[in-house]
Amino acid sequence: MKALLRRLLPLVRRARHDADLAEEMESHRAHRQDALERDGLDRDEAIHASRRAMGNVTLAAEDARDVWAMREGTPFFPMEPMLRVSAPIAEAQLVETALLAILNFQTTIASKAARIVHAAGDRPVMEFGARRAHGLEAALLAARAAYLAGCVGTSFVEAGRKFAIPLSGTMAHSWILAAPSEAKAFSSYADLFDQQTVLLLDTFDVNVAVKTLIDAGLRPQGVRIDSGDLAAASRSVRDQLDRAGLTSTRLIVSGDLDEWKIADLVASRAPVDTFAVGTALATSDDAPALGGVYKLVELEEGGVIRKVMKRSEGKGTWPGAKQVWRSDEGGIAAGDLISLNDEPAPSSARALLEPVMRVGRRVTPQPSLEEARGHCRRAIGALPSRLRGLAAEATYPITRSAALATLTR
After folding, report:
1. Which residues of the chain carry a pLDDT beneath 50?
2. CATH T-level assignment (fold) for domain 169-274
3. Helices assigned H by DSSP within 149-243
4. Superfamily of domain 2-109+293-321+355-383
5. What pLDDT sits at residue 56?
């Protein structure tokens, strides 16, 4: 029996959001298959060759016994297992790297996105981080995780194609620099994009750019400011646009934003309609690595269950297959109990680990990204408000059952 645990790291967020469980058994092999098909193999040959190249990881996974997991988008806390695999030990071990890479990275990005979205309040947040992500695959999965956790869209076209995430973007500085003048750049862009036009104002001078678009009679859907004092610039731009009758033109700001800078802009009542966040989101720059682990907790030998645990200093684990129970009060999470999975269910609590695979087959249909996104929104909303503040040091009650506590002595 294996459990994927999340250990608390100092100064890292209190809650994390499990992201993209569906890829866990298949992702590495699928990438190899795609490469082989591009090299000319037909689909069936590529499938078998990719399995052989990966040591038949997928074939082994098909024989795996059971997988239990938290529903995608569920906040979880230190030492709570987010996933549990029951299989012959060799099969369970083969998927370790893929599981940790998929779950740790996307959980990290989803958690960062949730903080940024919370800081923005009722103003939408766009994910703009593909160019700063650690590779194109990371960019793709970061866009998905960010959308799951509440961002309204992405600038990465491939993420829109693959995951049906709403797309949004603006003109590039190069469009303006390549044109004979800023006025010509704005006009030619508006001719091309019509009612979807969003103009970039800060290539030269923000206030001059606003005057230029107004004098040209343009009525863009939005304008974006990407540098400078965003609070002051947004006020100046909003005032000029409103005086010119462009009250419906939306104001987007970007430029090394994170949750703290967004919170400051919101607190200052800057007239910003949308925040576009790149580097800080796609890399989770202040906490870029989640210390999730995948550890053996239980073995069956000759029909006898033997529970095991690590006692390493700072890296200890808890033994036995476990379940996490969440209690609610008035629709708000009140505390979690971690118990052995064969203990009776506590009263008035719900199990967070649900069966997703039995004998290597899914037992329920895979939820859509929109369904997972809705669940994530509701689950975050059900956390106590004290946990959602950016700087709050509030604690959340997590207890062990008496039986589990006895085993860990």
Report:
1. 1-15, 18-22, 57-64
2. TIM Barrel (3.20.20)
3. 157-163, 173-178, 182-193, 206-215, 230-243
4. nicotinate phosphoribosyltransferase (3.20.140.10)
5. 56
